[in-house]
Amino acid sequence: TNGTTLAIADPASQPGLQVFSLAGQVALITGGGTGIGFEIARCMVAAGATVIITGRREAVLQESVAELGEGAHFVVNDVSDLGGTDTLIEQIEAEYGPLDILVNNAGINMKKPALEVTDEDFSRIIHTNLNAVFALTRAAARRMVPRGSGTIIMISSMAAYYGIDRVVAYAASKSAVEGMVKVLASEFSKHGVRVNAIAPGFIETEMSRTAMNSDPDRRDRAMRRTPMGKFGKPADIGHAAVFLASDAARYITGASLPVDGGNSIGF
Ligand code: NDP
């Protein structure tokens, strides 16, 4: 119009795929030795980040770090030990520098009809999937918020979106995490710290294999309500995590991103 070029000037935007780069960033991924967490770690290393994975089994972590190669490190840590969260973050920052990215991926599941779930079962799942996520997030945010930068990603589940039978404690924990994302995003975003969730659909890992094997019909039912008609791969979650952690998602906070082959819309 009028011979002038209509361009939206944005000095902060970077050309090409550089906007997805995590070069120079430090990322902590809980439960990063296996399954989804491992692929998140692999994708973040590929995007240039220094990645620290945690878990309870040293041998698993050692093997995973060897496979991930340069840029990957591990710390043996049980997320359910809530008293150790501030120390874990301090230790990581002392060794690798300020933490830029926290991915709360570690989680446990249990399939039982609700009437058979004991108080102990319920507390165990809630403790690992919810209390531990809050404690570690608070420890990381205590560093990120004053610095004015950082990003936190929760690994949620379809169990937070619609009713899946026999996972009452797991669904309660993931639904609570989704609620927490919104509150933390509203508190932290003005301080430059974004908080988001990824809600994976049916992804092929040890956890989903165990669940499917205990209920042969479940695979068919899951596929019937997944428009893409196939399971996802852990790397599908890894790619989404890189996106959400990167500058490409700099205006996204308080969101829950389904990565589920359409499972959440069902049919
Ligand atoms: P896996 O069982 O393969 O991985 C879970 C990881 O978490 C393991 O590396 C485990 O390591 C770690 N972990 C468990 N408890 C603790 C703990 N107390 N402290 C530290 N680490 C712990 O499962 P997935 O990869 O499938 O699951 C990853 C996340 O994705 C979970 O939050 C899960 O709820 C979610 N998810 C998975 C879906 C799927 O279809 N697979 C679907 C939706 C959500 P270790 O045992 O050595 O401690």
From TrEMBL:
Q: What is its EC number?
A: 1.1.1.47
InterPro entries assigned to the protein according to its UniProt record, in alphabetical order = KR_dom, NAD(P)-bd_dom_sf, Sc_DH/Rdtase_CS, SDR_fam
This protein's superkingdom? Answer: Bacteria
> Is Oxidoreductase set as a keyword in this record?
yes
Q: Pfam families from the xrefs?
A: adh_short_C2
Where is the Ketoreductase domain positioned along the sequence? 25-201
Q: Which UniProt keywords apply?
A: Oxidoreductase
MF annotations from Gene Ontology: glucose 1-dehydrogenase [NAD(P)+] activity
Keyword Oxidoreductase assigned = yes
Q: What is stated as this protein's family in its record?
A: Belongs to the short-chain dehydrogenases/reductases (SDR) family.
* Protein name (Swiss-Prot/TrEMBL): Glucose 1-dehydrogenase
Species assigned in the record: Hymenobacter setariae
Q: What is the lineage of its organism?
A: Bacteria, Pseudomonadati, Bacteroidota, Cytophagia, Cytophagales
